[in-house]
């Protein structure tokens, strides 16, 4: 159902009644990129491009249940996460409960752009739980989505780097967000 992504990118003035109403829009956008990428790479290679063999991972978004994640010592939880799905199967609700162990990136969603600092604060807590459950992680990714503005955050052990806002209601913002998702898949 890619029609849901149009609500997010074409109608930024539509403010959802809750963050949960934004999850299907975000999932549809990420699924569209993930589903389009294999065919695009195949067409590029058919044109004679000398692309090396690429081990493509399908980056999927999955919504999380209302339960607190396994391995977490706090009561807060992110609403969605990204996983690198190499088996081409969508995460079920059973393994979605242990998302701190399997998450490639955590997504914090807020309804309005002015809630950016609240999204950052929540993301800091989630990253702490990522590091607790994935002992070999050198860095972790997070996304904040506030309205139509997406920011990617790279968390290291001693610093955090955040990108500029990628507004998916604009062509340039969509291009930058799609580029980020493609690079994660490659």
Question: What can be said about this structure in brief?
Answer:
This protein is of the alpha+beta class and 186 residues long. It has helices spanning 3-10, 23-46, 93-96, 99-102, 116-133, 171-185; strands at residues 58-63, 80-85, 105-110, 140-146, 149-155, 160-162, 166-167. Strands 1, 2, 3, 4, 5, 6 and 7 form a seven-stranded mixed β-sheet that branches.
Largest sheet, in brief, is: 7 strands, mixed
Mean pLDDT: 76
Q: Report helical residue fraction.
A: 25-40%
What gross morphology would you assign? globular
Briefly note the structural class of the backbone. Answer: alpha+beta
Oligomeric state of this protein: single chain
Question: How big is the Rg?
Answer: 16 Å
Question: Kindly, what is the distance between the CA atoms of the first and last residues, rounded to a whole number of angstroms?
Answer: 24 Å
| Total number of strands | 7
Protein name: Fungal-type protein kinase domain-containing protein
Domain Fungal-type protein kinase: 92-184
Pfam family, one: Pkinase_fungal
Task: Describe the model.
- With 186 residues, this protein is α+β, with helices and mostly antiparallel strands.
- 39% of the residues lie in helices and 20% in strands.
- The chain has helices spanning 3-10, 23-46, 93-96, 99-102, 116-133, 171-185, and strands at 58-63, 80-85, 105-110, 140-146, 149-155, 160-162, 166-167.
- Strands 1, 2, 3, 4, 5, 6 and 7 form a seven-stranded mixed sheet that branches.
- Helix 2 (23-46) crosses helix 6 (171-185).
Question: Which key terms come to mind for this protein?
Answer:
186 residues, alpha+beta, globular
């Amino acid at each position: 159902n890619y029609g849901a992504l149009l609500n997010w990118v074409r109608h930024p003035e539509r403010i959802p009644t809750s963050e949960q109403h934004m999850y299907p829009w975000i999932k549809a956008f990420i699924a569209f990129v993930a589903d389009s990428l294999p065919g695009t790479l195949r067409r590029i290679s058919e044109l004679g491009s000398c692309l090396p063999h690429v081990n493509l991972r399908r980056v999927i978004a999955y919504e999380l249940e209302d339960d607190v994640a396994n391995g977490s010592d706090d009561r807060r939880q992110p609403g969605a996460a990204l996983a690198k799905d190499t088996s081409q199967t969508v995460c079920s609700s059973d393994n979605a409960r242990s998302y701190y162990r399997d998450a490639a990136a955590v997504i914090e969603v807020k309804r309005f752009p002015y809630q950016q600092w609240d999204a950052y604060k929540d993301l800091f807590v989630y990253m702490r739980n990522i590091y607790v459950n994935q002992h070999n992680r050198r860095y972790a990714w997070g996304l904040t989505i506030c309205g139509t503005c997406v920011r990617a955050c790279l968390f290291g052990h001693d610093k955090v780097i955040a990108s500029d806002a990628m507004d998916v209601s604009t062509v340039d913002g969509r291009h930058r967000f799609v580029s980020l998702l493609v690079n994660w898949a490659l």
